[in-house]
Amino acid sequence: xxxxxxxxxxxxxxxxxxxxxxxxxxxxxxxxxxxxxxxxxxxxxxxxxxxxxxxxxxxxxxxxxxxxxxxxxxxxxxxxxxxxxxxxxxxxxxxxxxxxxxxxxxxxxxxxxxxxxxxxxxxxxxxxxxxxxxxxxxxxxxxxxxxxxxxxxxxxxxxxxxxxxxxxxxxxxxxxxxxxxxxxxxxxxxxxxxxxxxxxxxxxxxxxxxxxxxxxxxxxxxxxxxxxxxxxxxxxxxxxxxxxxxxxxxxxxxxxxxxxxxxxxxxxxxxxxxxxxxxxxxxxxxx
Length: 287
Known about the structure:
Blueprint: H1 3-29, H2 58-84, H3 87-92, E1 108-113, E2 119-128, E3 131-139, E4 142-143, E5 145-149, E6 157-158, E7 161-164, H4 173-183, E8 191-200, E9 212-223, E10 226-240, E11 243-253, E12 267-268, E13 273-284
Antiparallel strand pairs: 1-5, 1-13, 2-3, 2-12, 2-13, 4-7, 5-6, 7-8, 8-9, 9-10, 10-11, 11-13
């Protein structure tokens, strides 16, 4: 075989090898599934309503009972004093009680997450080409409602939060395809949901514009077909009567949700820890 022919054969083998490698890499990162949303996320997330009474927390119910018992006890003491001081005549001289205030007046306000001003992210650490790297996937396709009780924040509510997993984007389109297709299987499981079950650490004192409340949101996170409990550390600021701004952050492990991440050869050391973050703006809703 001549030298020229040998060079041609070697070149063809190299090209074939590169083609196979590119094909394997492309197959690994592609087959991304649907990118389009089946419905606007605002139509998917259940909404809260001020027409429904606020949930009664056990501690709040006990406080209400104790307060009622104290009121009855005070009335009995006043009656006993009036009788001892001269019966009906003494009772007639008692001052007229002030009109009762409406303790049941609703001081709640409903806020709805604004997609245009909000963002959901998940973060995963990896080693990319020998260097530490943090993969950040983000979307503004998020919806949910919040009810804040301005006079008693402990009675506030957070409704179910819904996220469209098809809309997550990173800095790499091949990675995006892999997230949709192989990792989250968004053709079948389009939405990620978080259903709060308890709010912990909320104050009882009234909240005023400009104040920030820090608390925890306990709930159930559903990814694909797996639901697990998770707790978010949250911070919410009442900017004014028509706007609130907040953040929420939690850490979990994606293998617990049955998620496996296959990586190309240049990626190694992928962490199993998953950071979830939400930066949101919610605007007042007039019903």
